[in-house]
Amino acid sequence: LLAAMGARVVHCGGNGVGQAAKICNNMVLAANMIAVSEAFVLGEKLGLTPQAFYDVASTASAQCWSLTSYCPVPGVGPASPADNDYEPGFAAALMHKDLGLAAKALRDNHVESVVGLAAADVYARFAESGGAGKDFSAIITDIRDKSQ
Question: How far is CA 144 from CA 39, 44, 93, 100, in A?
Answer without folding.
Answer: 11, 10, 19, 24
